[in-house]
Design a protein that fits this description.
The protein is an all-alpha fold. Helices cover about 80% and strands about 0% of the residues. It has one domain (about 10-40). Keywords: Membrane, Transmembrane, Transmembrane helix.
Length: about 45
């Protein structure tokens, strides 16, 4: 296997970071959405 091709080890290292980033992004998006919804109701 060529050194520059993405191997299983690269996927093994990269996958958890992508998952953690996606989960944090979803939580942040939900928080912003709920804050915006409450702001819309009060205004």
């Amino acid at each position: 296997m060529a050194p520059y091709s993405p191997g299983p080890l690269n996927l093994l290292i990269g996958e958890p970071y992508v998952t953690i980033f996606w989960v944090r992004f979803q939580i942040l998006f939900m928080e912003v959405g709920s804050l915006w919804a409450s702001y819309e109701r009060h205004s």
